[in-house]
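Batch manifest, entry 17 of 40.
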Amino acid sequence: MQEDAKSNPEGKEVDMKIAIGSDKSGYSLKEAIKAYLADQNILFDDLGTTDLNEVHPYYRVAADIAPRVQSGEYGLAILVCGTGAGMSIVANKFKGIFAVACEGVYSAKMARAINNANILCMGGWIVAPEMGVKMAEAFLKTQYLEGLEDWRKDWLRNAADKVAELEDTLYGQ
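Output type: structure tokens
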């Protein structure tokens, strides 16, 4: 396992616990991703819909998981609803949460590398299970600033500081 719990560029196991959750629309995709996580020995907790007879709405799942990522209880999270947008909107209401709705491997990888996203959101109506697993893998194995030029890394660190200042203005310290 790697010291930096935020990511894993060498393809080793992710050294953190992941939160995962879905509503009814994202249930099948979430189950495929859970199977991948279990196969890779990645620790996770399913905090969303686990029984289609007891469905949790997207806004409740995202509002439960985002503060747990915010507090550090979970290093990263994966949220799945119909389009990924609803989960992303709700999760992003929390300071320090950077939830990105993605539809492909490249966007999932770059959300981590460029934006230091800590929550990957996907749409069960949009993303096929095989693609969702590949997206989750890319998201979990990519490190913030990985593979970027030095000038871009400096620029992105400065941008992250500006975003943090904006959050402090909006949410208070």
